[in-house]
Amino acid sequence: MGRSVHDINGLCWACGSTVVPCAASLGPPDSILKYKPLVPRSYLRFAIENRRFISFGFLIALASSFGQTYFIGVFGPSIESEFGLSHTGWSSIYLYGTLASAIVLPWSGKLLDHIPLPRYTVSAVALLAIGAGLISAAHNVWLLALCIFVLRQGGQGLMSHISVTSMARYYEAGRGRAIALATLGFAAGEAILPFLALAAIASLGWRTSFASVAVALLLVVLPCSLWLLRGHTKRHDLHLSDMEQGARSPGDAKSSVRSWTRSEVLKDYRFYLLLPALLAPAMIVTALFFWPQSLAEAKGWSTAWITGSYAIYAAATTVVALWCGPLIDRVGGKKLVPFMLLPMVLSLLVVGTLREPWVVWPYFLLLGGSIGISHTAVSAMWAELYGIGSIGAIKSVVTALAVLSSAIGPVIVGRCMDLGIGIEKVCLGFAGYAFLATLLLVVALRSHTRA
What we know:
Order of helices and strands: HHHHHHHHHHHHHHHHHHHHH
Largest sheet: none
Strand content: under 5%
Shape: globular
Radius of gyration: 21 Å
Structural class: mainly alpha
């Protein structure tokens, strides 16, 4: 029997209008939450059947770019020049603003478990727009630090949290594919926005560029996200009913996981063994993307050669994420996570030891491969290890720690450069850290499997 063009919320996929769906054409009322194909289905069919909500996740992930380091880092030279800052000074301001965001995030992120998703999304988008507007008018370092806090809280913190957590919460059998598709927004932002930011700075100046971001968030992202969330109340009610009644599909091992509270997770020693590896991508990638000009100078490359090659990184992230999606649905995210940092180790060894311009491509290909696994497998792993009952609260802690590690990374590199330690040696140090963190990760996951 063919499916209707109307989704479980009674919304037409084509026009978004509200209708009374036909029960026969929709199948079981919880089908959107328990996508259980009897035969393999393509990404295209899955995306079409769930396209409104997945598009929401994609849009929010893309818009989070305005608070991510790979976007803000492009403005670094202009900000340093405007405010007379050294490498250490600028990275320290970035650290303080990001650290403040990390401190607040466990509280603000936990609210996603209690505040309706549309209202929470409005708050996050508005906060990011305020940050972009404020930084365009900042004229002292104190206001600059405040702006960094607001940008990081709204973008890297809350909007990233919304995109990934909502996919993990409202999908079960299709969780891997939903996360993979939504997180393509991160890859799209990494591929397009740094280049557009460079062009905007050259033609408009850095202040006007940030002001334009604020306008785009309020006039484009906010109304589009609310339109994509029309009818979400029905989806959420089905989710709550499923949680209350314990309506689990027979034989689905992933759905039998007990939901841990955040306090229980924080008392689990294995959680702390996982963290060094899970925080490595945020720290290392942020550090490298924060200092593209410095890497270019060390290698004798142009900055445009690096930022223009972000598309290679984004393409690798996209391909690996799409490949991981159905694999996660078959074997689970926690079986893929141990391989997450291995491509990153190789990429850091490559960029740390070789100087030819072509090195940029394998460097970004390998780095993107690690991030593709990280975006998908790690998000699914939390639901598999600790359930979904308090996933917002649990992930808010992890996201806060990731934000903190992303603040530390640029400072490490900036301080090393001020001390005369080349960025290439820093890359080799990062490679050693990532390898040791992987060993701890394996130990933690094996302990979880035996428990």
